[in-house]
Amino acid sequence: MQVSFFMKTIFMSFLLGGLITSAQANQASAISELYQRLESMGKEIDELRGENETLRKGLGDLRQSQKQTFLALDERIKKQASAKATAAPQARAAIPARPPVKKEPVKPAPVAAQKPATPTKVNVKADYNQAYATLKRDHGIGIKAFENFLKKYPTDPLAENAHYWIGEAKYSKKDYRGAIDSFIVVLNKYKKGRKAPDAAVKLGYSFYAVKDWNLARRTFNDVLRYFPKSNAAKLAQKRLDQMKAEGH
After folding, report:
1. What CA–CA distances, in Å, run from 205 to 85, 172, 176, 208, 242?
2. Averaged in consecutive runs of 10 residues, what is the pLDDT profile of the chain (248 residues)?
3. The Cα angle at residue 221 between residues 216 and 225, in degrees rounded to 5
4. How much helix, strand and coil, in percent to the nearest 5, is found in the chain?
5. What is the torsional sign of CA 190, 191, 197, 202?
6. DSSP per-residue string spanning 33-102
7. Cα(131)–Cα(124) distance, rounded to whole angstroms?
8. Contact status, residue 211 vs residue 177, Cβ threshold 8 Å
9. Do residues 165 and 141 lie in contact, with contact meaning Cβ atoms separated by under 8 Å?
């Protein structure tokens, strides 16, 4: 350094010249200390310069390493992109084409069956009268006529009468078991119907005909209990008196 060289020159000139006084000696001592400080500072500056150079070199190495890393990564990305681009057509080629879908022929919608016309009261009454007239002429044919009527009009109010007349016809033909079945149908389905009292007393007659005295007596008593003011009640009481006289 220029300062160091200058201080050395001054100090040596004082020593060689023999001109050092007390004040000059003190001044020289101060200059010497200053020189030492400057010398120390120079060394520190040199050390700092060396450290800076080391740091600068390390930073350069780090930048170079990062650059190489980025270049390698970029190269890897390019290779992967190229590999995907090559594999895509092969993958598409490996997928088989879908077979054509067969279209089923369109079936025409089924035509709804037309509902039969609702029977009118006139038609029902006419069919009933015809079956009743047939029954008067021939009980066997009349029974079939009323059975057909019930198939055709099972829920019509006249169905009660049809069941009753079938029972009457069977009773007249001495088919007492068949008559019992028909009269029971009337009493089960039409307990409060107009034919219920007559069906009850005729049921008692049918039990009497098959000599089932207990059921006959019980049925006649039921007629008296449930239909006390009906003509059927009079007939039931008369038959009870007869059974009593007969010892049944």
Report:
1. 104, 11, 9, 5, 12
2. 48 44 55 67 71 68 64 67 60 51 60 58 93 96 96 96 97 96 96 95 97 97 96 97 95
3. 150
4. 75, 0, 25
5. positive
6. HHHHHHHHHHHHHHHHHHHHHHHHHHHHHHHHHHHHHHHHHHHHHHHHHHHHHHHHHHHHHHSPPPPPPP
7. 11
8. no
9. no
DSSP string, 124-173: HHHHHHHHHHHHHH-HHHHHHHHHHHHHH-TTSTTHHHHHHHHHHHHHHT
Contact 128, 150 (CB under 8 A): no
- Residue at 10: amino acid letter: I
Structure tokens at 31: 């200059």
Determine how many CB atoms are found less than 10 A away from the CB of residue 104. Answer: 6
Residues in the chain: 248
Structure tokens at 32: 């010497």
CA distances from 73 to 64, 78, 148, 207 (A): 14, 9, 98, 112
pTM score? 0.53
Q: Are 36 and 8 in contact (CB under 8 A)?
A: no
